[in-house]
Write a structure and sequence with these properties.
Helix 5 links the parallel strand 2 and strand 3. This protein has a seven-stranded mixed sheet with strand order 3-2-1-4-5-7-6. The chain is about 40% helix and about 20% strand. It is of the alpha/beta class. The protein starts with 11 loop residues before the first helix and ends in a 6-residue tail after the last strand. Helix 3 crosses helix 4 and helix 7 runs parallel beside helix 8. The chain is globular, with a radius of gyration of 19 Å. It has a single domain, classed as 3-Layer(aba) Sandwich (Rossmann fold). Bound molecules: S-adenosylmethionine (SAM). S-adenosylmethionine binds next to helix 2, helix 4 and strand 2.
């Protein structure tokens, strides 16, 4: 009998779990780089976002059963994993992913969850088609800075319409891209659609470092 046969692994179950996670992260990073190489403008990042950025994206958000949560551009699932860990039973999740490889990956990684293969522009018809109400949280991984103006406008208009009166729209940006034309234009268009907004501190444990931008609808005047 091998000296390791009782536990089946020289470093035990915890290490096995950790090394599986490392392999998964590596596979996701490779998938990401490959997709970026084939469609750089659509993917918009070379590496998937970190767990720290996922935490910052969800900071202060408390979910209730019955909430509808939509994620744009989940990619390999960097935010999805944490989001689904935190969603209570009875809350609805809808992911919208444009890239067919990522879409296939997400449906395999999160069985039982709904991922639509298409564009964030379709959010309203998707929510209506599924009989869901307005979204409490719309979490975006979209590369807004590399999108043409009219696509930014279309997505932000649809987002505003699909968001609950007390809902939150969150996205992230890279400070190194802050002064890029597309990034500045996105922030300007977003301020035309949303009233309140907040910018987080820089999340340094992400490649590259990133900030979370959080928007909500204007408060209705009585
Ligand atoms: C920067 S990656 C972010 C992926 C993931 N959320 C993360 O943070 O690691 C952008 C993602 O948005 C997707 N995407 C780009 N345009 C889209 C659109 N119009 N609708 C839905 N997804 C889109 C890309 O395919 C890609 O998965």
């Amino acid at each position: 009998m091998s000296k390791h046969s009782k536990k089946g692994h020289p470093f035990g179950a915890q290490s096995r779990k950790e090394s599986k996670k490392v392999s998964e992260n590596l596979a996701e990073a490779i998938a990401f780089i490959t997709r970026f190489a084939s469609a750089p403008t659509n993917i918009g990042a070379v590496f998937p976002s970190s767990r720290d950025l996922a935490e910052a994206m969800l900071h202060g958000i408390e979910f209730q059963p019955g909430d509808v949560v939509v994620e744009y551009g989940p990619g390999t699932g960097a935010f999805t994993e944490l989001l689904l860990e935190r969603l209570p039973e009875g809350a609805e999740y809808l992911g919208i992913e444009l890239d067919s490889h990522f879409h296939g990956h997400l449906t395999r990684r999160f069985p039982g969850r709904h991922f639509h293969h298409g564009s964030a522009v379709e959010i309203q018809s998707l929510l209506e088609g599924k009989g869901l109400g307005k979204a409490r949280l719309i979490l975006s991984g979209l590369p807004f800075a590399s999108m043409p103006h009219h696509v930014q406008e279309l997505i932000l208009t649809a987002t505003r319409e699909a968001l609950h009166e007390e809902g939150t729209f969150r996205t992230f940006t890279y400070p190194i891209c802050w002064y890029m034309t597309g990034s500045q234009r996105f922030r300007k268009v977003a301020l035309d659609h949303f009233d309140d907004h907040h910018k987080s501190r820089t999340v340094h444990r992400n490649i590259p470092p990133a900030k979370v931008l959080s928007y909500s609808k204007p408060v209705r005047k009585k």
